[in-house]
Write a structure and sequence with these properties.
Layout (H helix, E strand, L loop, with lengths): L16 H22 L4 H36 L4 E2 L2 E2 H16 L5 H14 L7 E4 L5 E6 L14 H15 L6 E7 L8 H4 L5 H18 L7 E5 L10 H6 L1 E6 L4 E9 H7 L4 H7 L2 E9 L11 H15 L1
Parallel strand pairs: 5-6
Antiparallel strand pairs: 1-2, 3-4, 4-9, 5-9, 7-8
């Protein structure tokens, strides 16, 4: 039997087409990366688009509700029912529609609150350093108002400028019916011990800062802000203006390495030393005597869980269904 010739072995390495394929994949990847880098997303436009979509959805829902109520109104009239809850059928239906509109309304966005804050400052001619946003606070939108426009030294009576400011922000974004985000009012002081006369009413900076925060809470409640959303916190001198929420939670700060332009993780300052260093001048102390208004990211819990918004409307609807069955 003749011996068969062994077939030639394929050349070593990958097939020749693999180089071309790899180049093609690389070019495609670079092409899509380039497309992504050129497509910048405008947050303002995105939010505006979302708001338009919400409004369109709300309008459709209201239209459906109106059509359904019109059918029910005609059904009630056909059986001789002209009034409900001492109201005409038309007025009763209108009240349900109004309550539904309020229930479907959306709470103000963070961007809208920031825009309103800037507009209010401009209208009231408040200096940029006297009222500013602190975007470093991880809890939510933080507004800091300098002590010069809040209270007189050693007192907790609100000055007129702060009243105008509170009126404006309350009307602008704090009295929304369906907004359940917690609003924390923080009172802060410098590290100077109150004088003897002041101590007769406020024995320490803790008492003074708490009284100031409580005065702001009371004022906002009288302006129509839901009291269940509000809370007053007094921090005395323990939270200087230049300290972030992260620094406070940590209880110390790392010293800054100017040469390498970074924090020196080996050397840190304890809180007492930090507080002293941030109260060394009249300007720093004035900056620390402030009110902070924080609109948190989280809702308050109302005993029914999150998202329960409109009990009156639900009650009216149940009553309406009950009477219709009769």
């Amino acid at each position: 039997m003749a011996k068969q010739k062994c077939p030639e072995c394929p050349p070593k390495g990958l097939p020749g087409y693999m180089g071309t394929m790899a180049d093609m994949f690389t070019l495609l990847f670079a092409f899509f990366v380039l497309l992504f880098s050129m497509s910048t997303l405008d947050p303002a436009k995105m939010e505006s688009t979302q708001d338009d979509a919400k409004k369109e959805k709300t309008a459709e829902e209201v239209k459906e509700i109106k059509e359904q109520l019109e059918k029910e109104k005609q059904a009630l009239k056909s059986i001789g029912v002209d009034s409900l809850d001492n109201m005409s059928v038309e007025a009763y239906m209108d009240s349900i529609i109004q309550d539904t509109l309020e229930a479907l309304a959306h709470k103000p966005s963070t961007r809208k609150m920031e825009t309103s804050f800037a507009s209010i400052k401009k209208i009231l001619d408040i200096d940029s350093t006297a009222a500013e946003l602190d975007r470093r606070d991880q809890r939510g939108l933080s507004m800091q108002i300098n002590g010069d426009i809040c209270f007189k030294s050693g007192k907790a009576e609100i000055l007129d400028t702060l009243k105008y400011f509170l009126d404006a922000i309350a009307d602008s974004f704090m009295v929304h019916r369906n907004d359940k985000r917690q609003i924390v009012i923080e009172g802060h002081t410098d590290n100077q011990r109150p004088g003897r006369k002041i101590r007769e009413k406020y024995p320490s900076n803790w008492h003074l800062s708490s009284a100031r925060a409580s005065a702001v809470v009371e004022y906002l409640v009288n302006r129509g802000v839901n009291p269940a959303r509000l809370s007053a916190h007094g921090y005395a001198d323990r939270w200087p203006a230049d300290m972030t929420w992260t620094d406070m939670r940590r209880g110390f700060v790392f010293q800054y390495d100017k040469e390498n332009e970074r924090e020196d993780r080996k050397n840190r300052m304890e809180m007492d030393d930090v507080i002293d260093s941030l109260n060394t001048s009249a300007e720093l102390r004035r900056k620390n005597r402030r009110i902070k208004i924080l609109v948190t990211h989280n809702n308050y819990v109302d005993g029914q869980g999150y998202g329960r918004m409109d009990y009156d409307t639900e009650g009216k609807q149940r009553e309406f269904e009950r009477k219709k069955k009769k």
